[in-house]
Amino acid sequence: MADNGGVNDPAATDPAGLAAFRALLTDEGRALLAELHDHDPADELTLATRLRRSYAPELVSAALAQARLRQRAAVKFGADAARMFFTPNGVEQATRTSVAAYRAREFKGLGVRSLADLCCGIGGDAIALAREGIAVLAVDRDPLTCEVARANAEALGLAELIEVREADVAEIDTSSYDAVFVDPARRGGRGRIFDPEAYSPPLSWAIEAARKAPHAALKIAPGIPHEAVPDDVYAEWISDSGDVKEAVLWFGTRPGAFGATLLPAGASLWSARATMLPDPEPRPVGRFLYEPDGAVIRAHLVAEVAKAVGGGLIDPMIAYVTSDGLHSTPYATSYEITDQLPFNIKKLKALLREREVGILTVKKRGSAVEPEELRKKMKLRGRNSATVFLTRVAGAPTMLVGHPAPTG
Ligand SMILES: C[S@@+](CC[C@H](N)C(=O)[O-])C[C@H]1O[C@@H](n2cnc3c(N)ncnc32)[C@H](O)[C@@H]1O
After folding, report:
1. If you ran DSSP here, which 8-state letter would residue 282 be given?
2. Which residue's CA lies nearest to atom 1 of ligand 1?
């Protein structure tokens, strides 16, 4: 495949980097890495000086860099990170375990037993797929990344299920696999890439590869406009603990639908394009405010949430839903609203003082105010907590004060 704007250019892998990584896999390298388990980055200078008495300086530098990457990767891979290997790009681009495991279960549920992971990186997805018992051909064109993926498969006891192949994805014949998964590189030398045709491989290539397989999924940026989503796929936005992590295009399941999946609970809301509800009507602010999850908003399913809670929007352009009743939904966080004020810092300050609010959560949608600056200006003191929404109600800048609604 033609080189794509320098996105993860294979020539970028420096042979010295490969040699340094291989040194970490020797008994000596592993012993050194074990010594760095849980090291405190603040003590690195002293530590490095001590370690250089017993190990070669290049090995110490490589091990310290790897130990730092393991610490960074713990947010994505949890306890596994301490046994895994990474590259800086590899950590950045890898799918976190929660999302990869969810997707692997979906593939397994479709009856998939073998899968070609085209653009495997350090193996975030391949590992989760193998843990579901799926045999994975993991392909990446970057030599160091492939070595790291192999080391990860071995470190996690999955080497029998993961075959790592260093190749351009365009060279791979996927016809003997039950499924294809493509996670194109979306970062280049100059940062994040927004044009899907500038991904490596380009989105149009990935779509073509997906269409040839009985089952397929493509991971894409959550910001993909709905117009860019092919008509016959299921576009799923995935959030984890309230943060939108990615979008996935599924081929062969729920054709022509948009959906949102919220992890860790795994609740999924979806609708066929043809039957999606129109935008909810605006209405006056009621006793409760619902903040839909970001994945629900990206999937354009706010109207479905509004219907479920018997509510409407506070403003035609703002994705806050309001209703007079409290309804439990996994797709939105609910708040009880106690006060509605026109946007006025002094009035808010007076109200918070009167209510003895010492802890303030600031949320905003449709307001340019910086939450941290607002919090400073409030000079908070007191034993109570509150949430303030800086937003617009029927076009007017407004502050809504309240607190999380009781659950259960
Ligand atoms: C987003 S990362 C994959 C991350 C992976 N899913 C994970 O969870 O660890 C994309 C990878 O695609 C590889 N890549 C980009 N273009 C490629 C191509 N044409 N052939 C093979 N690999 C390619 C890059 O080297 C990079 O490692």
Report:
1. B
2. 185
Rounded to 5 degrees, what are φ and ψ at 344? -160, 110
- The identity of residue 223, as a single letter, is G
pLDDT at 5: 43
Q: Can you give the pLDDT at residue 9?
A: 46
| Residues 239 and 112 reside in one and the same domain | yes
Q: Residue 158's pLDDT is what?
A: 98
Tell me which residue has its CA closest to atom 20 in ligand 1: 168
pLDDT at 13: 65
pLDDT for position 133: 98
Residue that is last in its domain, among 33, 63, 90: 90
User: What is the distance between the alpha carbons of residues 238 and 260, in angstroms, rounded to a whole number?
Assistant: 6
Nearest CA to ligand 1 atom 12: 119
pLDDT at residue number 221: 92
Q: What is the pLDDT of residue 354?
A: 94
Say if CB 262 and CB 239 are below 8 A apart.
Answer: yes
Pair of tokens at residue 311: 């509510």
Q: What is the DSSP letter of 255?
A: T
The domain containing residue 23 runs over which residues?
10-90
Q: Based on the number of CB atoms within 10 Å of its own CB, is 323 exposed (0-12), middle (13-18) or buried (19 or more)? A: buried
Q: Is residue 249 part of a domain?
A: yes
Query: Contact at 8 Å (CB) between 118 and 180?
Result: yes
- Residue 94: CB within 6 Å of ligand 1? yes
Distances (CA, A) of 401 to 319, 363, 373: 17, 10, 17
Q: List, run by run, the mean pLDDT of 10-residue segments along the chain (408 residues).
A: 46 76 96 90 90 94 96 97 96 97 98 98 98 98 97 98 98 97 85 83 96 96 91 97 96 95 96 92 96 97 96 96 96 97 95 95 93 91 96 96 88
Query: Domain for residue 320, yes or no?
Result: no
**Residues sharing a CB contact under 8 Å with residue 282, sequence separation 6 or more, in sequence order:** 312, 313, 314, 315, 316, 394
Token pair, residue 362, equals 């600031």
Residue 145 Cβ contacting ligand 1 at under 6 Å: yes
Say whether both 179 and 190 belong to one domain: yes
